[in-house]
């Protein structure tokens, strides 16, 4: 797709692109915003380098895409509850997003877009991987597509935010702080194959962090099919890898991606700032 106000350099043939010619510290014109929006839909995840963004500026830009969310479990900043300050002190392992997942699929109306800003970045390590669930769906056999069509998956935060395994975060003894709410236990249902409301393209919409089982099946019956989809959809052919630098921004479309934060920089501190944009409708 052509863009008139930005430069877009794809990272792979199916996912990821770096955008140049944009200053996110300033308000974008409607034309430039539309180009950025279209590039995000086309490439699933986009990256910007050397951006000076205040917390207020990050929220202002996020609002162009929709309504910033206040997470029901992870505590946001005192000044801006919609912003989560993702701090990993030196000497601790990363523990936020360190596994393949799609953000907040345990919401009835899941997060559509996430924006992450790198402030203090280690000299090496801490890359993030994103996988295209559209490319993965397209690569399925016709028989598998027919089998999956119409199936519904059950999602919950129950495992990922289990207080028995994340006690320090609930007790306020960790750099990330959780607060317990009914959102931890609620189960929601989403179609296993999701259609993007803008592009019309289909994606696999399950992930190992928040998907519990397939509706109408037991956990044991669901497990082999889900395991196959998790492994198939995150093959190297379907993902890109981004090396963070200070003042880098990543924005990704949760309607058609999974991502994975590498935990390979224990000796270094990292500080990032995250905002998510809520969906208006349930997936179809």
UniProtKB/TrEMBL annotation:
GO molecular function annotation: dioxygenase activity
InterPro entries linked: AtsK-like (IPR051323), TauD-like_sf (IPR042098), TauD/TfdA-like (IPR003819)
Residue ranges occupied by any TauD/TfdA-like domain in the UniProt entry: 7-276
The keyword Transmembrane helix is assigned to this record: no
Oxidoreductase among keywords: yes
Source taxon at top rank: Bacteria
Gene3D superfamilies: Clavaminate synthase-like
Keywords annotated in UniProt: Dioxygenase, Iron, Metal-binding, Oxidoreductase
UniProt cross-references to SUPFAM superfamilies, sorted A to Z: Clavaminate synthase-like
Family: Belongs to the TfdA dioxygenase family.
Protein name: TauD/TfdA family dioxygenase
